[in-house]
Amino acid sequence: MVAAPPEHPTPARVVVLVSGSGTNLQALLDAVAERGPAYGVQIVAVGADRPGIEGLRRAERAGLPTFVHRVRDYDERPDWDLALAESVAAFDPELVVSAGFMKIVGADFLAKFGGRFVNTHPALLPSFPGAHGVRDALAHGVKVTGCTVHFVDDGVDSGPIIAQEPVEVLPGDDEATLHERIKDAERRLLVEVVGRLARDGYRIEGRKVLIP
Fold first, then answer.
1. What is the pLDDT of residues 35-72, one digit of tens each?
2. In whole angstroms, what is the distance from residue 202 CA to residue 41 CA?
3. Half-sphere exposure (Cβ direction) of 14: Cα atoms closer than 13 Å
4. pTM of the model
5. Model pLDDT for residues 134-167, shown as the tens digit of each residue
6. Whole-number pLDDT of residue 5
7. Which of 48, 55, 116, 145 sits CB 3.0–4.6 Å from 137 for a disulfide?
8. CB–CB of 66/35 below 8 Å?
9. Would you give the end-to-end CA distance of the chain in angstroms?
10. What is the four-CA torsion angle of 5, 11, 13, 17, rounded to 10 degrees?
11. Strand order in the sheet with 117-121
């Protein structure tokens, strides 16, 4: 007799990195709480690049361990990168999620977590990469922009794209109003993508991310 597989496999271990208010983190926490084992994710820790932020307080209210590594506390940027990588690795995650983490990781971090580090961007990559994706899209006069969830590589917003969602640019939009609508889409998309990666697995072939 062959035993049936469990209805809900063991949830994937996820470490989330934050730099600010942690609204994307909260969306993930809410999905875990509301969907339970069916969501397929267990958030095991939250890290940050600065103390005293709301993102860390959200994690603490959820009973999660936290850690902080400030770049300025290290003599060299690679030392910070290695310390961050070691702290994340201590929680043995299957995925690492940048939920508004505003620092660029380096070689040591990518050596450990390349192909497992998920990030979001407020534009439809490869258009408008970098820190001002919303502003640049508006300045270019596009009629549709959106958000992208992608894996991080050693470039700037250049890693393999996992999923995208379009957002219409409305007459009278400024950077703030457009960005708010993009953030709404970004949270939905991030929750969906992280759950699918965790539940279904994936593989990366060149620039394509394939989810069964």
1. 999 999 999 999 999 999 999 999 999 999 999 999 99
2. 15
3. 28
4. 0.94
5. 999 999 999 999 999 999 999 999 999 999 999 9
6. 39
7. 145
8. no
9. 28
10. 150
11. 66-68, 41-48, 12-18, 95-98, 117-121, 144-151, 161-168, 208-210, 203-205
Output the CA angle 130-22-141, nearest 5 degrees: 35
Count of positions (residues) in the chain = 212
Amino acid letter for position 55: G
In the annotation, is 121 catalytic? yes
Q: What tokens appear for 71 in the block?
A: 């770049």
Q: Report which of 97, 103, 98 is spatially closest to residue 74, judged by C-alpha positions.
A: 103
The structure tokens 């991030």 sit at 190
Q: Where are the domains of the chain?
A: 12-120+148-166+183-210
In the numeric block, which tokens belong to residue 27?
Answer: 């969306």
Coil, strand or helix: which one is 147? strand
Active-site entry in 69, 121, 150, 179: 121
Q: What span, in angstroms and rounded, lies between the C-alpha atoms of 157 and 43? A: 24
**Neighbour tally for 171: CB within 10 Å:** 4
| 15 in Cβ contact with 88 (< 8 Å) | yes
Tokens at residue 88, please? 């994340």
Assess contact for 39 and 2: CB atoms under 8 A. Answer: no
**Helices marked H in 45-174 — which ranges?**
54-61, 77-89, 107-113, 133-140
